[in-house]
Write a structure and sequence with these properties.
- With 121 residues, the protein is α+β, with helices and mostly antiparallel strands.
- It contains three helices and five strands, in the order H-H-H-E-E-E-E-E.
- Strands 1, 2, 3, 4 and 5 form a five-stranded antiparallel sheet that branches.
- A hairpin with a 5-residue loop joins strand 4 and strand 5.
């Protein structure tokens, strides 16, 4: 998912998430494009993942996972090269950062899990 985000590949994201989440990701990618920047996330390493809660509503099943991960995460200016002084907008392309998030997934009973929400911790 992070690789598809970095390349702005909505076609690869579509089967992994609900239409609402796809819309959110699309809006964020559009905002980045309009600002002339690209968010690059690479070398993702899951440090901890555990089920935080699960529940059912009718024929829908939900699960929220606590995820702690480390990745290279930085923002660059589109059309610039790594040697250009204004190429790097924020972050560090050499040093990973850690993040903690809650990812909620949903599925129809027995169906494929789809990402439906991400909450930063």
């Amino acid at each position: 998912m992070q690789e598809a985000w970095s390349t702005g590949d909505l076609a690869r994201l579509r089967p992994l998430m609900t239409p609402e989440m796809l819309s959110y990701f699309s809006e964020e990618l559009t905002r980045n494009t309009s600002q002339g920047v690209r968010n690059i996330v690479s070398d993702v390493e899951l440090l901890k993942g555990e089920l935080a809660e699960s529940w059912e509503e009718g024929d829908l099943q939900y699960a929220t996972a606590y995820l702690k991960w480390r990745a290279i995460d930085y923002l660059v200016r589109v059309g610039r090269s790594p040697g250009d002084p204004d190429w790097l907008v924020s972050g560090d392309p050499r040093n990973p950062v850690e993040a903690e998030e809650l990812w909620t997934f949903v599925r129809r009973r027995g169906g494929q899990w789809l990402l439906s929400a991400i909450q930063q911790i």
